[in-house]
Design brief:
Layout: H1 5-10, H2 13-19, H3 45-52, H4 67-80, E1 84-88, H5 91-100, E2 108-112, H6 117-126, E3 133-137, H7 142-148, E4 155-159, H8 171-180, E5 184-188, H9 193-196, E6 206-210, H10 212-216, E7 224-228, H11 230-244, H12 250-260, H13 263-281, E8 287-291, H14 301-307, E9 314-319, H15 322-332, E10 337-338, E11 348-350, H16 362-367, E12 374-378, H17 384-396
Parallel strand pairs: 2-3, 2-4, 4-5, 5-6, 10-11
Antiparallel strand pairs: 1-7, 6-7, 8-9, 9-12, 11-12
Helix pairs in contact: 2-4, 4-12, 13-17, 15-17
The structure holds pyridoxal-5'-phosphate.
Pyridoxal-5'-phosphate (PLP) binds at residues 90-92, 95, 116, 119, 159, 163, 188, 190-191, 210, 212-213, 222, 224.
Length: 397
């Protein structure tokens, strides 16, 4: 880093977001440069030898290190308050690498059942093939965590708030139980973003992101990140990424790095808009359920407000009239797009039961509260009144 690390750690978040970890080349560019290069050259053969023996610290090959990607990793680590970070090509690459880099045959993973569809696939279909025992619990049920973690475990995986039903899990309570059971806690913090919730402050060991969501926030590229202490990143994550190759491209790293400049103001506006939309939907007779963490009616409202500094950009609601009513509503939207993506500047709505969670059995969906009438809304950065007008006309149509 140009300014020393200690100084940058003391900067407030907004300064870190704009300037953290900026490295200038010999041209003294204002904006961070994109180093679109797969490899690097050496002055002498001896230098290459030393680099491969890790006697000198320099870039060797972009599968395991690139200056633009390194700026993104270091800036994100500053914001999270983590010692180190590795970027990945997508959020799923981050989730998979964060678990596969240390779990081995015979190990036990305890995970909260309500999670992003592909995360569930990793837990239910991939890890068990390599001999990892996976036990799923209801994340909001303290007794189930206690029971599952009364036996030794190696890892705990959870997301909070969850997708799509916005359940909020007690990070401190789960981390305490997990550590007593000998497990490392990995938290998927996508819905809360690095600004609204800092899982490590509640005891989490590893935080993972889909940078595709709010970090890019403008629907342009995929990316992911794993944050933890230096030992875990250096000893476990780095060799896994180096040798298996789920590396973030330098171009995407640059897009994500520049997106961090505006992350705070975008997330603040997402939250303001989402709260206004949630409040406008309160009390509607055609909705049988409305879920937003900042609303006092949310089942874990108190916990949400203790763990998060705002409610986030996601709202879920259930229309009376099941799938037909939900489809009619979605098809009548004029401004808001039908899309399974989220955390975008454009407001996006989807029907989880037939898209993101269609792979689950009807029983599994019912267990997670994903009913046929449920719609998930990712509130964007348009004027909140236009979002509310669109929702209102779509309900009426
Ligand atoms: C989108 C998402 C992921 C996966 O991220 P990709 O970048 O799409 O691979 C993982 N977890 C959560 C909670 C997500 O929303």
């Amino acid at each position: 880093m140009a300014t020393n690390d200690e100084t940058q750690r003391k900067w407030r978040t907004r300064t870190q977001l704009v300037r953290g970890a900026t490295e200038r080349s010999e041209f003294n560019e204002t904006s961070e440069a994109i180093f679109m290069t797969s490899g690097y050259v050496y002055e002498r053969a001896e230098e290459a030898e030393q680099a491969f023996k890790q006697e000198i610290d320099r870039f060797v090959y972009s599968r395991f290190g690139n200056p633009t990607t390194a700026m993104f990793e270091k800036r994100l680590a500053l914001i999270e308050g983590a010692q180190a970070c590795r970027a990945t090509a997508s959020g799923m690459a981050a989730v998979y690498a964060s678990l596969a880099c240390f779990l081995q045959a015979g190990d036990r993973l305890v995970a909260a059942r309500a999670m992003f569809g592909s995360c569930l696939y990793i837990c239910q279909n991939i890890l068990p093939r390599f001999g990892v025992q996976v036990d799923l619990v209801d994340g909001t049920d303290a007794a189930q965590w206690e029971k599952a973690l009364s036996k030794p475990a190696n890892a705990v995986f959870l997301e909070t708030p969850t997708n799509p039903a916005l359940e909020v899990i007690d990070l401190r309570a789960v981390c305490d139980l997990a550590h007593k059971a000998g497990a490392r806690v990995v938290v998927d913090n996508v819905f809360a973003t690095p600004l609204l919730q800092k899982p490590m402050q509640f005891g989490a060991d590893v935080v993972v992101y889909s940078a595709t969501k709010h970090i890019d926030g403008q629907g342009r590229c995929l990316g992911g990140a794993i944050l933890s202490d230096s030992e875990f990143i250096v000893d476990k994550v780095t060799p896994f990424i180096r040798h298996t190759g789920p590396t973030l491209s330098p171009f995407n790293a640059w897009v994500l790095l520049k997106s961090l400049d505006t992350l705070e103001m975008r997330v603040r506006q997402h939250c303001e808009n989402a709260l206004a939309v949630a409040q406008a939907l309160q009390g509607r007779k055609d909705l049988t359920r409305l879920l937003y963490p900042s609303l006092p009616s949310h089942p874990q409202h108190k916990l949400a407000m203790a763990q998060m500094s705002a409610g986030g950009s996601m709202i879920a609601f259930e229309l009376a009239g099941g799938k037909a009513a939900a489809f009619r509503f979605l098809n009548n939207l004029k401004l808001i797009d039908i899309s399974n993506n989220l955390g975008d500047s454009k407001s996006l709505a989807c029907h989880p039961a037939t898209t993101t969670h269609q792979r689950l059995t009807p029983e599994e969906r019912a267990h997670l509260g994903i009913t046929d009438g449920m719609v998930r809304l990712s509130v964007g950065l348009e004027d909140a009144s236009d979002i509310i007008d669109d929702l209102t006309q779509a309900f009426a149509a």
